[in-house]
Design goal:
mainly alpha; elongated
């Protein structure tokens, strides 16, 4: 009876599962081709990698660091970004949309401003940043294949039943595995096929690494510790005030 159950039910069922697995893999491969996916590596802009990370090292901080490195902007000990003579020259650019947008936001002001204020109040820079990253997200979505169809609740129940049956069969044939090589080979092939079926249900790897695994932007990595700290405090400020936020006293001139 055990031989009939093994060769008459378990083996054909595993063969069907493996056939469906191969068919689904071919269907996924065709879907990836239709989505325009190739084996060529995805070229990732460092500002896209910085986007979505913790704010001391995100794309806004990297854009400000790039302007400081290029000599277009300087940051003082209060965290205020101030244009240099080179930064005031309209012909000078940073060569990238995000630093250029930040530079344009500074040029539109009559005085320097902290990075937090520019990010909070400058709508034009926010739109430049949104459009830059929206185009990147559209490219990522275009490279993702359609989601494969899942087996559903009935499929899961069926797979659990097959595994229970295989466990019973393995215990029933345990004394014959060493003495009958054919039984051992068939059981190994059946287990391999069913584990391959289960292994296909996994999350697709993301084209870019998780934010905690992304490297620091080159512009931020090149800053010295003091300038990095000034940019850190600049991001925390949203007003251009002195005396640690206390309003300056104004003395009315005495009339004679």
């Amino acid at each position: 009876m055990a031989h009939v159950l093994l060769f008459g039910f378990v083996v054909p069922l595993t063969a069907v599962l493996c056939g469906v697995l191969l068919w689904r893999r071919r269907a996924d491969a065709r879907a990836r081709q239709r989505a325009g996916l190739r084996d060529d590596p995805l070229v990732v802009d460092p500002y896209h990698l910085a986007h979505g990370t913790a704010w001391p090292r995100d794309d806004v901080q990297a854009a400000a660091a790039q302007l400081v490195r290029d000599g277009l902007v300087r940051v003082n000990h209060r965290g205020t970004l101030i244009l240099t003579p080179a930064g005031r020259d309209p012909a000078r650019t940073a060569g990238h949309p995000l630093p250029d947008g930040l530079l344009k936001a500074l040029r539109s002001r009559t005085a320097g401003a902290p990075l937090g204020a520019l990010l909070l109040y400058d709508a034009e820079y926010a739109e430049v940043r949104r459009a830059f990253h929206a185009a990147w997200q559209a490219r990522l979505e275009a490279r993702r294949p359609p989601e494969p169809r899942q087996i559903g609740c009935l499929g899961v129940c069926g797979m659990v039943g097959v595994f229970v049956l295989m466990t019973v069969e393995m215990l029933a044939f345990f004394d014959r595995i060493l003495t009958e090589p054919l039984v051992a080979v068939v059981l190994a092939a059946v287990f391999a096929g069913q584990f391959a079926w289960v292994a296909q249900y996994r999350d697709e790897p993301e084209p870019v690494p998780h934010w905690s695994e992304r490297p620091l932007h080159p512009a931020l990595a090149a800053l010295d510790r003091e300038t990095y700290g000034y940019l850190f405090s600049s991001r925390q400020r949203i007003r251009r005030t002195r005396n640690r936020g206390r309003p300056r006293s104004r003395r009315a001139s005495a009339q004679p």
